[in-house]
Design goal:
single chain; alpha/beta; nine-stranded mixed beta sheet; six-stranded mixed beta sheet
Length: 456
């Protein structure tokens, strides 16, 4: 990136103090001093520590100027602003408007990171494309993503996450997308939003930033969105595995490491994605809709989907040296997503034992116990050999499964017993077995995955 100090001051409506030429060029914007280098604008943010405490360190590492929300008793050049985070966001909007890449935004209760990866792969076959890295999808990560691009980028794919009402509105107004997509409405953060209706309304905030001639892409089979999209002035396109969607799919083959399908729009083309699951076909349909909107030839879209790189910990297949197959999906979880992956996992061809390890799904509010218990219909004893449940909320699922599973096949562990869980799963599995692990990130099942990899 490249901006002058004068441009930054203009963008954030700040005041330059200290000895520094307004024509000084800035090549990086950082809020973490560990990443500061020569030519950096340092943004001191307030978290567990106040970033203003690290301004001296930032200049020692090469920063040329910093934001500050108060007067500094130093000769260090700084731009005085009312709020450093708000200034960071305003600068990102300014910079994005200066470069003017096409922008695609993705949100949803589940699948947004994988969908982002698929969209970037499809667009990348025709355009210079940049996407949100990792999970930089919040009020800090999204502007940081924008400030990480340069003038060569033609397509920017922004993932937008949320915890509460208003989060998506803020992000979409910063990103100002040409195309936006909602992958699905689940139960994530229902504790803060009250209901799935509240979640749907919060996700629909994405419309508030879409350009007037833009496109909104939504699932065809989500009844909660249907009344909301009637108010949308932009073009609305639907996707799904059901008839009636603008872009629908028919699955031809579903295997452990790939799924093939055809669509109603591209009738002569077979698409293959290197991941398991009907839910991932839905994600791929979003990517195809985006690619089509930007004129990517279908042959290129076939190639993009077939070779896309998925962010780690998202439905990731791993294999131990002993030949045990691990399906790791331990970054986030909600009931809808857990049921979808369990459904696909259950259908896999059986070699050895099939084992599931499920941890608590967090932030589900008052109905958490009922939601955990509802997963039982997707865990059948003729398809799954052993079930390991971990955490306070998973006890509700355990109580239901006791009616159908033999006690020797059903195992429950309290949240304080992670090491015991690790050992129990490790003792049960052997070469040829397949293990599926899923929980909210806060449950730390990644430690269980690592333990199995290191001990088998």
């Amino acid at each position: 990136m490249k901006l002058t100090v004068k441009e930054v001051v203009q963008a954030v409506k700040g005041k330059l103090l200290g000895a520094l030429s307004p024509d000084t060029e800035i090549f990086h914007v950082e809020f973490d001093t560990r990443n500061v280098q020569s030519g950096t604008l340092f943004v001191p943010l307030k978290g567990n520590r106040d970033g203003h405490e690290f301004i001296k360190q930032a200049f020692e590492r090469g920063a040329v100027v910093t934001f500050s929300d108060h007067l500094l008793e130093t000769d260090t050049p700084y731009i005085l602003v009312e709020d450093t985070l708000k200034a960071f966001q305003e600068l990102a909007s300014f910079y994005l408007n200066k470069l003017k890449p096409k922008v695609c935004a993705v949100t949803g209760s589940n699948g947004k990171t994988t969908t982002k990866d698929m969209i970037a792969a499809v667009l990348g076959t025709k355009f210079i494309t940049y996407k949100t890295q990792g999970n930089y999808n919040n009020e800090i990560g999204l502007p940081y993503t924008i400030m990480s691009i340069d003038e060569s980028v033609e397509m920017l794919v922004l993932e937008m996450g949320m915890d509460r009402k208003g989060d998506i509105e803020l992000l979409t107004k910063i990103g100002n997308p040409d195309v936006a997509a909602i992958t699905m409405i689940g139960e994530s953060h229902i504790e803060h939003l009250g209901s799935r209706e509240g979640i749907a309304a919060a996700k629909m905030e994405i419309v508030q930033g879409i350009k007037p001639n833009g496109i909104l892409i939504v699932p065809a089979n989500e009844p909660l969105l249907k009344p909301l999209i009637k108010e949308v002035k932009q073009t609305v396109e639907t996707f799904g595995l059901t008839e009636g969607a603008d872009l629908s799919a028919t699955i031809l083959e579903e295997r452990k490491d790939q799924t093939s399908f055809t669509t109603n729009q591209f009738k002569d083309m077979v698409f293959t994605i290197p991941v398991l699951g009907q839910y991932n076909v839905s994600n791929a349909l979003v990517a195809l809709s985006v690619g089509n909107a930007f004129g990517v030839p279908v042959e290129k879209m076939v190639k993009g989907l077939a070779t896309f790189d998925m962010t780690k910990n998202r439905t990731e297949w791993l294999e131990t040296k002993d030949g045990i197959h691990i399906l790791s999906d331990v970054y986030n979880a909600n009931p809808t997503a857990m049921k979808l992956v369990l459904d696909s996992f259950s259908k896999l061809e059986k070699t050895g034992k099939k084992i599931v390890v499920l941890g608590d799904m967090l932030e589900l509010g008052e109905e958490s116990k009922e939601m955990h218990a509802s997963v039982s219909e997707y865990i059948k004893k003729d398809e799954i050999d052993d079930v390991f449940l971990y955490g306070k909320q998973m006890e509700s699922l355990y109580e239901v499964l006791k009616n159908s599973f033999d006690s020797s096949k059903l195992h429950f562990f309290e949240a304080t017993k992670k090491e015991v869980l690790m050992k129990a799963v490790s003792d049960k599995i052997e070469s040829g077995d397949t293990v599926f692990l899923k929980a909210s990130n806060g449950m730390g099942l990644k430690e269980v995955v690592d333990y199995l990899l290191n001990n088998h």
